[in-house]
Design a protein that fits this description.
With about 450 residues, this protein is an alpha/beta fold. Helices cover about 30% and strands about 25% of the residues. Helix 2 runs parallel beside helix 9, helix 5 packs across helix 6 and helix 8 runs parallel beside helix 9.
């Protein structure tokens, strides 16, 4: 139970978040009531200054850490966390490149004016048409995920008379301490290659005149605290890196992302400067032990840049106390969104926090569960939280740390339109992704006569 059910935990909310004198939460200089009056609910509010600050902090931390060892760093924003043309412009203006993993994400980045040379293309099943488009656009690197892709990329590059730079994604075998579906470097999963296959893959790449082997890539998972997993993974990948240097220089080592953020007050993410210095120190030490030069290092944060910048605003529709077997009770607070705008609790059992946003309250905190409006018992937004027991229909409820993997995973379950994404900065707001309407949903239904219109 919190000491104050109105308090906004530091590190969970954007730095700009505060409560005005009347108790209303202010985001990016805008009271939430004004945001809702302009854009309705639910709405995902993204603090532009927070995104820019986090991007700049990652860029500067890794630049400083690598400079200490005589090399450089390249930081890519992992667009899968959340991508729009506005976000792509923000992060690139702060010095980052952009990671994409589909044709759609690639087109968003290009539409934002991102230099294709600063784009990396991921994916375990890149369609031939996607590969062709990526090569033609001049993406800086394509990350090879299987032997089959080598031939496809080489063929596309040959047709276009281009030498395409590629990295090979490998599985280091390090099992990140995270949800099973978020761990991506263990052996039994769809991404990357085992070390033995990687050696054969690199040899094949080096045989093909339309490809340039630029380095190895390894990503151990997502929402990871601490640096132990990154250090161990780097040490294993360096063994392979050293072996492959017998066939030629390897300029890049990409260690992926996965850096965790705080979703609740009990989360304790590792500071960015510590992450950067300790990971780079470990790689530099490993290279020195093996007598090999330290390559350029690349990293791919996504959640850690955009996650805490996002706050989703809902309106409370109903409240309902439910008795538990233990004899206690829980207050169910239903809001006008749910798993269609935040699938993470249903997918991963992800934990979030919540606060009444339109006012403060001196009422006693009560054990609560924030749920959505979908016909699914797993439609939970916040599994357990202490909210004032006078929370009532019409209150605005804010759920922080929703900037990553909420809008990007949003669906139309139960034919609910996806909400708008609104950027705030300096006391003003603007829509960066338009919210859907019922007309948008009906427009996709081929069984509706075009001259009947929406009902």
């Amino acid at each position: 139970m919190p000491d104050d059910a109105n308090a906004l935990a530091a590190g969970v909310w954007p730095a700009s978040a505060n409560r005005a004198a009347d108790g209303e939460i202010v985001l990016g200089g805008m009271p939430v009531s004004e945001i809702v009056r302009e854009h309705g609910t639910p709405v995902l509010v993204l603090d532009e200054d927070e995104v820019r600050s986090r991007a700049r902090e990652f860029h500067d931390a890794f630049a400083a850490a690598t400079a200490q060892h005589g090399t450089t760093a390249r930081v890519y924003y992992a667009g899968k966390a959340f991508l729009s043309t506005a976000v792509a412009r923000w992060v690139t203006e702060e010095g980052l490149g952009v990671d994409v993993c589909t044709r759609g994400e690639l087109e968003v980045a290009l539409a934002a004016g991102v230099d294709a040379a600063r784009i990396g293309f991921h994916g375990n099943n890149k369609l031939p048409s996607e590969i062709e488009r990526a090569v033609a656009a001049g993406v800086g690197a394509i990350i090879v995920d299987s032997a089959i892709e080598i031939e496809r990329i080489a063929a596309a590059a040959s047709r276009l008379d281009i030498v395409q730079r590629v990295l090979v994604r490998v599985n280091s075998g390090v099992h990140a301490e995270t949800h099973d579906f978020l761990a991506t470097a263990h052996e039994d999963q769809k991404f990357g290659m085992p070390f033995a296959d990687a050696e054969t893959a690199v040899a094949r790449i080096r045989e093909l005149p339309s490809l340039e082997f630029a380095g190895l890539h390894c990503h151990i998972g997502s929402q990871i605290f601490g640096v132990a997993g990154f250090r161990e993974s780097a040490a294993r990948v360096l063994e392979l890196h050293q072996t492959l240097r017998a066939g030629g220089e390897i300029p890049i080592l990409n260690l992926g992302g996965g850096f965790g953020i705080a979703y609740t007050s009990v989360d304790d993410p590792t500071p960015i400067t510590r992450l950067a210095s300790e990971i780079v120190d470990a790689v530099a030490s490993g290279c020195a032990e093996r007598g090999i030069p330290l390559p350029m290092l690349a990293f791919e944060p996504g959640r850690a840049i955009v996650g805490t910048a996002g706050v989703t605003l809902y309106e409370v529709g109903t409240t309902k106390p439910v008795s538990l077997d233990s004899g206690a009770s829980r207050l169910y607070v239903s809001v006008d969104g749910g798993m269609s705008d935040n699938a993470r609790p249903a997918l991963y059992g992800a934990q979030f926090s919540a606060r009444i946003a339109s006012r403060t309250s001196v009422a006693e905190p009560t054990l609560s569960r924030v749920v959505g409006r979908h016909c699914e018992s797993g439609d939970i937004v916040v599994d357990h939280e202490y909210l004032p027991d006078d929370v009532a229909p019409g209150d605005l409820l804010a759920v922080p740390a929703t900037g990553a993997y909420c809008a990007s995973l949003a669906s139309n379950y139960n034919h609910v339109p996806r909400p708008a994404v609104v950027a705030v900065s300096g006391g003003s707001s603007r829509v960066i992704v338009r919210g859907e309407t019922i007309d948008d949903l009906l427009a996709r239904d081929a069984g509706i006569s075009t001259n009947e219109g929406a009902r």
